[in-house]
Write a structure and sequence with these properties.
Elements lengths: L1 E4 L3 E5 L8 E6 L3 E10 L3 E10 L5 E5 L3 E2 L2 H9 L2 E4 L3 E5 L8 E6 L3 E7 L6 E5 L5 E5 L3 E3 L9 H13 L11 E2 L2 E2 L1 H11 L17 E3 L9 E4 L2 E7 L2 E6 L6 E6 L17 E4 L7
Antiparallel strand pairs: 1-4, 1-7, 2-3, 4-5, 5-6, 8-11, 8-14, 9-10, 11-12, 12-13, 15-16, 17-22, 18-19, 18-22, 19-20, 20-21
Helix pairs in contact: 2-3
Amino acid sequence: MRAVAARTICPVREEPSSRMPLDDELLYGMWVEVLREAPDREEGAGMSWLHIKTPYGYEGYCRKEDLLTESSKVEAWEQGSKCVVMQPYADVLDQPKVQGVCMESVTRGGRLVVLGPDPEKEGWIRVGLVDGRQGYTREKFLAPLHETAFTEKEEAFRERLVELARGYLGTQYRWGGKSPLGIDCSGLTSMCYMLCGVYIYRNASIKEGFPVKEIPFEEKKPGDLLYFPGHIAMYIGNDKYIHSTGRNGSDGVVINSLNPAHEDYRADLPGILEHTGSIFGVRNC
C-alpha cells in the first residue's frame, strides 16, 4: 500500500528508532510504498514505525504517525493536480491574506494540490493539504510538479540544475537532510534533479539502474556530478562546483573551485576525485 508524508519533514531512519541517525527525509506530500509495520526498537509496541520505500528506491523507517495511511485519503491525494513549493519555506493559511492562521508550513520540494487562484485576491492560490483541508498560499511560491524530465533541451536542463543548486546556498549541513532547513551532499544533488523531474541515486555514488553514468572528467559540463569518497558535488562551470559540506568553516552549501589559482580552491578534494557522472547523452528517463 501507499502512504503520504503528512508532516513538514518526516525523518527516515535505518532502523525503527528515534535514536538512530537520520538517513533521509520525506517532504510534505511525498508518497512512499509501505512494506511493513514494525515496533520501536527500544519502546516496543509503544510506538509504531513503517518500513517504507521511496519512488527513488530508498528504504528506511518512518514513524507511523508522520504518514497518512488511510487508503481513501491517500487515493484522493494522488488524484489531485499537484504543484511543488519552490520558496524555501511557505505557509498555507486559512484565508488569502497575511493575517490568516497558518494551517501548515511546507519547505521547498513539498507538494500541495492546486485548487485554483482566488478571483478576489490577486497573487493568492487555493491549495489542498494531505488531510483534505483547504487553504491559501502565494501563487509565486509554487511551480508545476515534474514527474518526468521537464525539458529535452539539454542546455536549459543544465542551467536549471545550477540555478536550483544555487538556491540552497547558505543552507546548514544536516546529515540525511534535503530541505532548506538542512541538507547533506547527496540531498542537495538529488533534490535538484528531482525538482527537474529525474530521480538519481540518493547516496554519493553511481548506482546501476539510475540515470547517472560515468563520463570522462574532461567532458564535464554544468549540472554534471563529481564523486569523491563518501561525498558528491555538482559542477557549475569555470572550474567551480557547489556542494553541501560539514567541514568547519563551510558548514553547509558553498561553492568551491577545482583550480588551485582560485581563492575558493579546496585542496583536499580534487586529488581524491573518483568519478564524474552525467545523465546527458546517456539519459533513459
